[in-house]
Amino acid sequence: MIYEQIATGGCQSYLLGCSETCAAVVIDPEISQLDRYLGLAARDGLRIRYLIDTHTHADHFSGTRQLGRQLGVPVVMHRDSPASFVDMRLDDGDMVLVGRLRLRVIHTPGHTRDSMCLQVEDRLFTGDTLLIGATGRTDLPTGDPDALYDSLFQRVLRLDPSLKVHPAHDYKGAGHSTIARELAENPRLQKRDRAAFVDMMRSLNLTMPTHITEALRSNMSGGKTVAQLLAEAGAVVPFMALAELKARVETADGNLVVLDVRERDAYEQGHVPGARLLPRGQLELRVNDDLPDPTRRILTYCELGRISTLAAATLRELGYQRAVALDGGMKAWREAGYPVKPGSEP
Ligand SMILES: [Fe+2]
Q: What's the rounded Cα separation, in Å, for the pair 209 and 13?
């Protein structure tokens, strides 16, 4: 079996390949790593056949849907997953065949209702059911400490103690563990009485994961994250460096239309000399009057360089084929000590 572990911060994903047939699967892909999975698969001579999420993630952005669409391969989850875009729903005891590899599904609700572990040869991919030195939390949507107790003590921990444990999270870079080691050393597994385990899980008092609202929204709906939206806009527009714009401002380059797409009060506090105000929220409404010539070179900027990227992408879509965005924003411009003009005049 070809095995690659890909970390995104503490979030772990795995590329598994069948060495005989070159078929492969990605478990818990993260949205910012799609190029990496494809690169590793290409390097290892693998063809990705399935994309599996071990559960509905609240803490990272799943890449299953986007990569699934890109490759034309099924998105696989437990049948209790609330996501509407799942192509293949699995039940406890099902197997997914990836070439000669057999991924056996063990439904392990508790961290979430749709959590499952996947056993492949001598490895167990535990999602957030069993972590190294910890367990998944049970205080997020559909979490249930009683169910986690059953999943751990009736199912997972009864498996072959020599099985290697590969969790969906590992913040300490431990890599992997084994069932035996977790039974012996995992502090959360030392309370083997149900009531004591449930009490402990209920009293953990963990802080909410960052981006939980956005992660659940995009993972359950298949909708884009804000970062994705920005990355897609950034992929279709060129950028101009701050210093390049400064040089053009100093020479009063009449061929460049500089658009400040922030709101009026921000513009009046201080803008790039010569820049015109056209707030992002009014762009489509005013574009025909304000920018009658689609062949002009137009530069957009905002405070941080994100909204201006969306604005430049919109302008390109509208046919302004020379729209570019500033690489950076007004904040960086001020910090660089470049000229700033207050007031309502360009
Ligand atoms: Fe999770």
A: 18
